[in-house]
Amino acid sequence: MSSEREAAGMRVALMSYDERELRVRKFYLEEQSRAISCTCFQSGEPVLEALRKAWCFDVLVLSGQLEDMDSLTFIERLNQLPNRPALLLQGDGWYDDHTTSCLKRSRKMFCIEHGHLQDLMRGLLGVPGQNSTRIERFCIQLYEQWGIPQPNTNCEYLTLALQIACSADGKLALRKEILRGVADEYHITVAAVDSGLRRMIDGLETRAPSGWERYKAENSLTGMKITTGKLIYSLQRTVLRQGIVKREHL
Q1: Are 182 and 153 a contacting pair, CB within 8 Å?
Q2: What is the DSSP letter of 226?
Q3: pTM
Q4: What does R_g of the chain's alpha carbons equal in angstroms?
Q5: Distance separating alpha carbons of residues 34 and 238, to the nearest angstrom
Q6: How far is 133 from 169, CA to CA, in rounded Å?
Q7: Which 8-state DSSP code applies to residue 32?
Q8: Which pLDDT tens digit goes with each residue over 125-161?
Q9: Residue 45: which of 22, 78, 12 has the closest Cα?
């Protein structure tokens, strides 16, 4: 598999207690699109453990009970993770009050009403924010290189700011559009977002980890005063240059 295909691909975790169902779904999805790579799980704990360690899946597909826990227990435990992929719930029976409440609270949980394979394929291709998912994965790796333990609120601000910056073809205004979007999402002021990002930058400049110094060198920022705007726009150029943001469907 080429690095280009790996960058553009969708890593899917298929989850069900039914081994035959998993085999059929994996075969169908991977036959339909070379960009989709599926891993099958009959238990929920291995998926949760993998997600605690790394961003290893772009989408989870849950179609019912698992061998080691019921579906609602899995959803509740998944929602406790700071960084989690989109979750597709396939099949009937997802419209009880508890699940409906989870759906309303989460921007990363979606229902596919029917259990047909074609519906699953359409659901995967219709998951909102594939670019945002790729950006989030990129940022998680970057924060690790910069030596910032996760979860970190200021990192969450920066990730969302980058997602907003990359959502338009042109250059968005820093405070009126990018930071305002972050502030609205977290119900805080623009000044609070800017202050948090500047504290993160100041901390990086003080500690000067090798990953941070390497990032500055690669983006012609060495020796410059790093402002919030310089950091966000340099990250935007990086994800565009590396092809992390895709304009086409799989």
Answers
A1: no
A2: -
A3: 0.57
A4: 19
A5: 26
A6: 18
A7: H
A8: 666 556 777 888 899 899 999 999 988 999 999 998 9
A9: 78
Place of tokens 């790729």: 134
DSSP state of 39: E
How far, in Å, CA of 144 to CA of 140, rounded? Answer: 6
Contact residues for 225 (Cβ-Cβ < 8 A; gap 6+) = none
DSSP 116: -
Cα separation, 175 vs 181, in Å, equals: 9
**Distance separating alpha carbons of residues 83 and 151, to the nearest angstrom:** 8
Residue listed under structure tokens 């970190």: 152
Classify the phi-psi angles of 113: left when phi > 0, otherwise alpha if psi is within -120 to 50, otherwise beta.
alpha
Q: Which domains does the chain have, with CATH numbers?
A: 3-128 (3.40.50.2300), 131-241 (1.10.10.10)
Give the 3-state secondary structure of residue 247.
coil
Task: Please report, as a single letter, which amino acid is at residue 206.
Answer: T
Q: Quick: pLDDT tens for 151-201.
A: 899 999 999 899 888 877 678 889 988 999 889 878 899 999 999 999 999
Distance CA 35, CA 29 (A): 10
Whether the ω angle into residue 151 lies within 30 degrees of 0, i.e. cis, is yes
* pLDDT tens track for 62-98: 987 899 998 888 988 888 887 778 888 876 555 455 5
C-alpha distances (whole Å) from 42 to each of 46, 61, 77, 82, 235 are: 9, 12, 16, 23, 38
Residue 240's contacts (CB-CB under 8 Å, 6 or more residues apart) are 166
